Amino acid sequence: MPIPVTKIYYCSTSSYTGTTFGALSDGVNPPATYTTWGWNTGVINPPLYSEMNWNQEVVRTSNQWQSPPTQSAPNQNAGGSGTGNCWALGPVNGEFLDGNWQITMSMKSVTLAAAHTGRFVYRFWTSLTGSGANASLITSSYISSSVLSMPGNTTTVVAGTSSIALPRINLHNEYIFIQTYWSIITSPGGGPANNNVDQDYVLGNITSSLVLPTGFVSHNRMGTIIRENSRL
Q1: For the whole model, what pTM was predicted?
Q2: 178: buried, middle or exposed (CB in 10 Å: 19+, 13-18, 0-12)?
Q3: CATH code for the domain of 131
């Protein structure tokens, strides 16, 4: 069997082609970017979960805040927002070996800061189309990152990491969707004055927001496995 290669997918500032999902860029780290999209938790009491709105900040009054987390599939109109609830990559013609995928996502308070904690929660899907139609779950589990302790300032970048055990994923020009939620653990508190406390994505070489999958081997057109050049 060929030696698997290492791939790195960076969270991009672009949507996936023809969709409102966030694009995962194969080996290309975007310019350093402090975004204004993520989640406004305000003083909402935990435990609550909200799907990502790619390229928008989920407001604290949104009906996307639910407990337990919603059961929705990859969706380009999450909660009526008009934007997607997943990071997407593909099309992929090959297989990722079974093992642990590593995800790092970086955040910073933008509008208003106060100490609070939360974490990312993920589900993995595959689909035959980039639209996410008729997607199938790779694993039904909701998988949590480490806890992010957001400080009381708008300058500190905080990263949340995850190690996610997944089975072998064999793809034939298919797509992977990483459905992403934010989970509130502790609220900023402090009453209405903290209603606009938020945390938004940080991308690029300021710090890493990326997906590091297991080893990958690709399929040629005849269905046999060939080795790709490593992108380290």
Answers
A1: 0.91
A2: buried
A3: 2.60.120
